[in-house]
Amino acid sequence: MSEFWFDKDEKFYVEFSIRGYGRTQKFSSEYDDCVEWHEILDDVVKTLEASYGYSFKLPDNLGVYYPGKTDDE
Fold it and tell me: How far is 3 from 42, CA to CA, in rounded Å?
């Protein structure tokens, strides 16, 4: 199997851009493999807030997984 499928440096990479109202915000960052989800989410939200010009009130338990989540939902 190709080494392409595995990150040897054990990092997470997050990149995205958002464009609206004639402005573009780009986000690119790398995190150590021990990063907590909320640290990445905080950076993403800050970029979204900058692109819209106001802040978002997000629930504390926002995430990819949450207790009670099922595949049927």
Answer: 31
Tens digits of per-residue pLDDT, 2-42? 455 555 688 889 998 988 878 888 899 999 988 888 888 88
Q: Per the structure block, which two tokens stand in for 12?
A: 């997470």
Structure tokens given for 73 = 């939902």
Q: What is the pLDDT of residue 32?
A: 92
| Rounded Cα–Cα distance for residues 28 and 16 (Å) | 7
- Residue count (the chain): 73
The phi and psi torsions of 49 (rounded to 5 degrees) equal -60, -40
Q: 7 or 44: which carries more pLDDT confidence? A: 44
45: closest CA among 60, 34, 23, 66?
A: 60
Locate 53 and state its tokens. 């010009």
Kindly state the tokens that stand for 67.
Answer: 């207790």
